[in-house]
């Protein structure tokens, strides 16, 4: 089989002549196949250069004709331009072209008009699609690469048919972002409408429906000096104030903003709330789900059960600082003990775990150091658990799941006597795309003291930024 590829400028008369000659051959010869590529005039030079470079060819002008050797795996063999194609047709098939110049020009004009009409139709179809705009900052963070395949899913965004994904990384370079864009496109996910990239704030957060902020300045090391911490706080504060201003100016009023990472979660979220004054503070969440899941993993190991069978663990306070894991509402399912029941049967964790001293001491310490231990061993952030934490929040917020309690950092002055001006991790419930603070919890003197300690720490961090 002879398979030829004919490419040319849409308005090129010689492309039109070669096209009609190829059509004649295809009609007369059953084993002759032609594939046509019509390129707009202002895009031709770039396309030709890229194609020749890829195939190690040298060619100028329009059209460009090559033969694909199907029996050799589709490898292309350059034929040349119109005269080369015409000579090949005369020599091998005894067919020539007698098209006049006027006809050539007429067909070329028709080709251009048809191409423009096709582009208009495609643009019109695209305009009918109303994609959900999802922005991710710190897009070169490993968490982003783990997150994206699961993010573009009806399980996370029910009732959404298309998503426009916008990748932003102020510290990255465009080449790295373009490589990431190509990888995402190659996933061939049906919900993905388009992917854009950027390394500056000029167009950031335009029409944003969802914003996921992953850039945090790195993990808070316990051995870091005060000066290093102050510098980190200053840099991250300036960035998040800018983010907040851009969100205020360009994002939708209903935007959902989730802050994730290892450092300064509460502070970063608080700065966004302060800077995006026209956006309701209920649209901002600092994700504590990763910390919740880490606590469940520690408990699961101690109790010899699956972490997924432990629910309603509460994280209070400063997610990446002084926090407290509260188990007063925690439940366990499928516990191997004297009292058992069906899969939906649960028991209060505190009623079957007698070692209260361990829960108040070693348990809290293990949760606090677990993530640092993982990153110390691998030399990388705990990307998988971070991504899972973000997805947990999104699913609850979008109504895809209905957890009884999900801890998150939010601005909630007045609840549990918390002060204004800070973002504090508290237990939430989600209904119809909105969250509310769980209010019927017991706050005894010890827990009250811990809440005051965390609130004071957050106020102090904010004063120093």
Automatic annotation (TrEMBL):
<dbReference type="InterPro" id="IPR010945">
    <property type="entry name" value="Malate_DH_type2"/>
</dbReference>
<dbReference type="Pfam" id="PF02866">
    <property type="entry name" value="Ldh_1_C"/>
</dbReference>
<dbReference type="InterPro" id="IPR015955">
    <property type="entry name" value="Lactate_DH/Glyco_Ohase_4_C"/>
</dbReference>
<protein>
    <submittedName>
        <fullName>Malate dehydrogenase 1B, NAD (soluble)</fullName>
    </submittedName>
</protein>
<comment type="similarity">
    <text>Belongs to the LDH/MDH superfamily. MDH type 2 family.</text>
</comment>
<dbReference type="InterPro" id="IPR036291">
    <property type="entry name" value="NAD(P)-bd_dom_sf"/>
</dbReference>
<dbReference type="GO" id="GO:0016615">
    <property type="term" value="F:malate dehydrogenase activity"/>
</dbReference>
<dbReference type="GO" id="GO:0016616">
    <property type="term" value="F:oxidoreductase activity, acting on the CH-OH group of donors, NAD or NADP as acceptor"/>
</dbReference>
<keyword id="KW-0560">Oxidoreductase</keyword>
<dbReference type="GO" id="GO:0006108">
    <property type="term" value="P:malate metabolic process"/>
</dbReference>
<feature type="domain" description="Lactate/malate dehydrogenase C-terminal">
    <location>
        <begin position="295"/>
        <end position="460"/>
    </location>
</feature>
<dbReference type="InterPro" id="IPR022383">
    <property type="entry name" value="Lactate/malate_DH_C"/>
</dbReference>
């Amino acid at each position: 089989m002879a398979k030829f590829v004919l490419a040319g400028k849409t308005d090129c008369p010689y492309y039109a002549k070669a096209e009609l000659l190829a059509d004649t051959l295809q009609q007369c010869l059953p084993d002759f196949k032609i594939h046509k590529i019509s390129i707009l005039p202002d895009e031709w030079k770039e396309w030709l250069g890229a194609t020749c470079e890829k195939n190690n060819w040298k060619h100028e002008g329009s059209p460009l004709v090559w033969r694909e050797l199907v029996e050799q795996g589709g490898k292309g063999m350059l034929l040349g331009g119109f005269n080369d194609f015409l000579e090949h047709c005369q020599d091998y098939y005894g067919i020539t072209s007698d098209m006049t110049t006027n006809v050539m020009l007429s067909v070329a004009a028709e080709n251009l008009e048809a191409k423009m009409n096709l582009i208009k139709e495609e643009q019109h179809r695209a305009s009918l699609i109303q994609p959900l705009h999802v922005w991710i900052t710190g897009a070169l963070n490993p968490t982003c690469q783990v997150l994206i395949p699961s993010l573009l899913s009806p399980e996370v965004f029910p009732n959404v048919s298309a998503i426009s994904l916008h990748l932003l990384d102020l510290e990255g370079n465009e080449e790295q972002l373009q490589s990431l864009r190509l990888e995402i496109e190659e996933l061939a996910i049906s919900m993905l409408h388009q992917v854009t990239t950027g390394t500056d704030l000029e167009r950031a957060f335009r029409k944003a429906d969802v914003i996921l902020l992953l850039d945090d300045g790195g993990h808070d090391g316990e051995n870091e000096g005060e000066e290093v911490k102050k510098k980190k706080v200053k840099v991250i504060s300036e960035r998040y104030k800018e983010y907040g201003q851009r969100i205020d100016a360009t994002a939708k009023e209903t935007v959902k903003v989730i802050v994730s990472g290892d450092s300064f979660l509460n502070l970063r979220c608080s700065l966004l709330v302060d800077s995006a004054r026209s956006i309701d503070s209920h649209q901002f969440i600092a994700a504590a789900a990763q910390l919740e899941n880490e606590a469940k993993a520690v408990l699961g190991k101690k109790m010899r059960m699956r972490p997924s069978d432990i629910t309603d663990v509460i994280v209070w306070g400063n997610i990446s600082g002084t926090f407290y894991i509260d188990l007063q509402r925690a439940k366990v399912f499928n516990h191997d003990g004297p009292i058992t029941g069906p899969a939906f049967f649960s028991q209060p964790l505190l009623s079957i775990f007698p070692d209260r001293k361990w829960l108040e001491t070693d348990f809290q310490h293990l949760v606090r150091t677990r993530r640092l231990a993982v990153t110390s061993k691998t030399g990388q952030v705990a990307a998988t658990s971070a991504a899972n934490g973000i997805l947990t929040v999104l699913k609850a917020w979008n109504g895809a799941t209905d957890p009884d309690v999900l801890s998150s950092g939010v601005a909630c002055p007045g609840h549990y006597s918390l002060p204004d001006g800070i973002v504090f991790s508290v237990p939430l419930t989600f209904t119809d795309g909105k969250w509310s603070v769980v209010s019927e919890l017991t706050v005894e003197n010890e827990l009250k003291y811990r809440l005051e300690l965390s609130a004071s720490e957050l106020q102090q961090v904010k004063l120093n930024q």
